[in-house]
Amino acid sequence: MNTTIMLFLVQDGITNGAIYALLGLALVLVFAVTRVILIPQGEFVTYGALTYASLAAGQMPGTAKLALALGIGAFAFDLFVARKALHGRLVVRSFITNIVLPAIVLALTIYFAAQKPPVAVCIALSLVIVAMIGLYLYRIAFQPLAHTSVLVLLIASVGVHLALQGLGLLFFGAEGQRGPAVLSGAFTAGALRFTGQSITVYAITIAFIVGLWLFFGLTLYGKALRATAVNRLGARLAGIRTTLSGQIAFLLASVIGALSGIMIVPITTLYYDSGFLIGLKGFVAAIIGGLVSYPLTAVAALVVGIVEAFSSFYASNYKEVIVFMLLIPVLLLRSLAAPAVEEEKD
Amino acid sequence: MQSRLPILVFALVMAAIPFVPGMPPFWIVLLDNIGLAALVAMGLVLLTGVGGLTSFGQAAFVGFGAYTTAVLSTAYGLSPWLTLPLSLLVSGSLAVLLGLITVRLSGHYLPLGTLAWGLGLFYLFSKLEFLGRNDGISAIPPLSIGAFKMLSPGSIYYAIWVAVILSALLTMNLLDSRTGRAIRALRRGHVAAEAFGVHTPRAKLLVFIHAAVLAGLSGWLYAHLQRAVNPTPFGAQAGIEYLFIAVVGGAGYVWGGVLGAAIVVVLKEVLQSYLPLILPGSGQVETIVFGIMLVALLQLAPGGLWPWLMSFLPERTSGRKPDTSLKLEQRSRAPAEAGVLLQVEKARKQFGGVVAVNNVSFDVQAREIVALIGPNGAGKSTTFNLITGVLSATSGSISVLGKKVDKAPPQEIVKLGISRTFQHVKLVPDMTVLENVAIGAHLRGHSGPIASMLRLDRADEAKLLAEAARQIERVGLTEQMHQLAGSLSLGQQRIVEIARALCVDPMLLLLDEPAAGLRHMEKQRLATLLRELRDGGMSVLLVEHDMGFVMNLADRIVVLDFGTKIAEGTPATIKTNPEVIKAYLGVAA
């Protein structure tokens, strides 16, 4: 092979790897805080991407309505849980976050969808819509199960994934979509051509990694999230609202998912069910990172991206086989390195 | 021991169903599918619900079973009956291969690992030339007995349900045995099971293989039912669905797997055929409803439907008392005058910079009760863990009857006749007291999993249960023998732990705070029991905070403070030792 092809493959791998890194980070975050293995992460990607693409094409995305519907559900859950002690303030706050907010966003979406809004507006609206979906999903599907085992949470996660994927087909149809580039323009350096889009991908990934690192290291909320991850009961006794931690984690995960989607939809065509596979590759990275380490996950994601790029060049038929089998040696190493002593956990 | 009557009734009902006049053939097809899913789910029940190992990869094993018979019976013309053992062998050996890698990763690595190789294998099925790529393999011969070919769903129905009921029986037999108890103890962590000689990685591998073989069986049946295979039903979605079937039914119960399969298969069918009538429109409305119902079901009954249904039946706490006249072989006792039983020499344990045990030396003689006391954090439980092989010492040596055992794993230590209880009770709460105690006798039984499945272990099993019953009687819990261990008070659970440790037939009994949570009378009874054991030739090393209890019972006391031994002697000398008083009260009195 010549150097140009190699460099090209590496570049392609890094661009994909950066996306997997973001998704891997989100998965690690959600798992650490809530013990939910977030299979629907892939749906956040497709929802973000396809909402953006639909808006840019001047179509009304169904996700905005879904956000309002889920918000109403979340409001009902809040009322039901607090039925014995309904404070006015609590009801008003829940009403504003769960109903007024998505209603306003829905109105904005309807207004803008009719007139082909600029890219920035599309991005902002898609992010807000998916963020709300993530937040309300936690309230409806996972918060009532927060005390159960990882397995039950996992199955619930699968249920949410199935429902969201089905809704995705309903909203966006079976055809794939592409969106406009977030940043157009390009420049060349030697044999390589860097598009504005790929630069955006790199920049946002790095920004998120640094941002998460600062958030968890320096802010009180970040520390509260980490405390919840280590010991739920202990965190509650220390006055941390663990449900708030879960909400923050889901909010971040859905924003990260949507952002990843918006960044790749100008590069590749996405279908309503593409998210699952993309999310799974983030998983591979997250597992290699041990579901705890952010930097390791990021590095692993780059490796996954590069391996994928090379195997699609040499053995495109076996691309997926190679990517998923990459895990086996990693697992092998892990099991040799740490014959983990684990204690009862249910 | 569960009664076999309900199973017989179930088998008869299933056998009669095809003869019901006017039975729509489509229902038989559904029942076939339920049976196929139930086989896989049953394996998952054992793997996930009982053993605590979550696998998303079962669909791949179904695939191996199906593809093995497909290739062998089409390309090589082998009889389907000949490919049955080969299908099971292929899925079983693959389980060994993948299991060796994945089973050691418990916690959340395991499910994700299985998801990953499940996907990898699925893509492999769809890319390999000799498996027909995405088109798969068709024209698979049907099962046949003589001239009778099982071409219709109604004729293979019996093959499927015979397989389901047989597998259920074998699986239940396995759970109700020596090996089964080891498997059921897995979910509660390794330490307790290993302290009684259970080789936990081997037990995990065993359930992994069992589940894979059941999945392979389902695949073999599937191939001959459909008479064609393609990769689609063996993908990640299917793997997730099998797990989901097990959880919906009740992941801890063999029949939960069958119930779950029935619910999910029927529900999907109903949703697929009726939803479009109610909600016309494009898209997979049934997937949406299915997903939502799944989450709702979990929120209402996180334990699954089978235990929820069973809770309506009257509770049965009966159970026959084992015949205690049966005896296990006893360990030959150390001669009465024998000297040092356990010798701890300059044992040291460091966790990073913390020295938990600092060059501690002491010994335990035959027929002696030694107490290890000290304030909280003195390193007493760490010393126990060093002796029993749960932790290995940083330096120093520990020997039993003159034989060095520093590097020996817990399973080897218990073979030498050292058994223990735990500071934090480690019983399996959903097993009866009798079953929990019988784990203590694990090494004194010999029946393997195959013998257990075929019920060839009954003589061995009766002896083990007899021994367990005898020890329960000895500690005075005969009344509670058939209750679930989790339903007992904490003090009683500690006593159950002692009975379990006695089942080892130990020379040396290590008790970690046995009197904590006991009432006054119970403490006195415990002290009497321990004296009896000593007089019978056993040595006891105990950690205890109740000074009255220790001073009256121990022959000798070793005092630790901040990991260092500060005193050793008879209760009388310890009581007046100024160092000890300082350690407990802060200043010299």
- Derived from helix and strand composition plus strand pairing, the structural class of chain B reads alpha/beta
Strands of chain B, total number: 12
* Discrete helix count of chain A: 14
Query: Per DSSP, what share of the residues of chain B sits in E-state strands of 2 or more residues?
Result: 5-15%
Outline the low-pLDDT stretches of chain A: 339-346
Largest sheet of chain B: 6 strands, mixed
Structure class of chain A: mainly alpha
- 3D shape of chain B: elongated
Gap between N and C termini of chain A: 53 Å
As laid out across the biggest beta sheet of chain A, the strand order is: 1-2
- Provide the β-strand percentage band of chain A: under 5%
Radius of gyration of chain B: 28 Å
Poorly predicted residue ranges of chain B: none
Number of helices, where a helix is a run of at least 4 consecutive DSSP H or I residues of chain B: 23
Work out the largest interface and the residue count of each chain: A-B, 55 and 52 residues
Q: Whole-number average pLDDT of chain A?
A: 83
Q: Give the proportion of residues in helices of chain A.
A: over 70%
Order of helices and strands of chain A: HHHHHHEEHHHHHHHH
Large-scale geometry of chain A:
globular
Secondary structure elements and their pairing?
The complex is a heterodimer of chains A (346) and B (589).
Chain A: H1 3-34, H2 41-56, H3 63-81, H4 88-113, H5 119-142, H6 150-172, E1 186-189, E2 192-195, H7 196-218, H8 220-230, H9 232-237, H10 242-264, H11 274-288, H12 294-314, H13 319-325, H14 327-337
Antiparallel strand pairs in A: 1-2
Helix pairs in contact in A: 1-7, 1-8, 1-10, 1-11, 1-12, 2-5, 2-6, 2-10, 2-11, 3-4, 3-5, 4-5, 5-10, 7-8, 7-10, 8-10, 11-12, 12-13
Chain B: H1 5-16, H2 25-50, H3 58-74, H4 80-102, H5 109-127, E1 143-145, E2 148-150, H6 153-175, H7 178-186, H8 190-195, H9 200-226, H10 236-249, H11 254-278, H12 285-300, H13 305-310, E3 340-351, E4 354-365, E5 369-373, H14 380-387, E6 395-400, E7 403-404, H15 410-415, E8 418-420, H16 433-439, H17 449-453, H18 458-475, H19 490-502, E9 508-512, H20 520-535, E10 539-543, H21 547-553, E11 556-561, E12 564-569, H22 571-576, H23 578-585
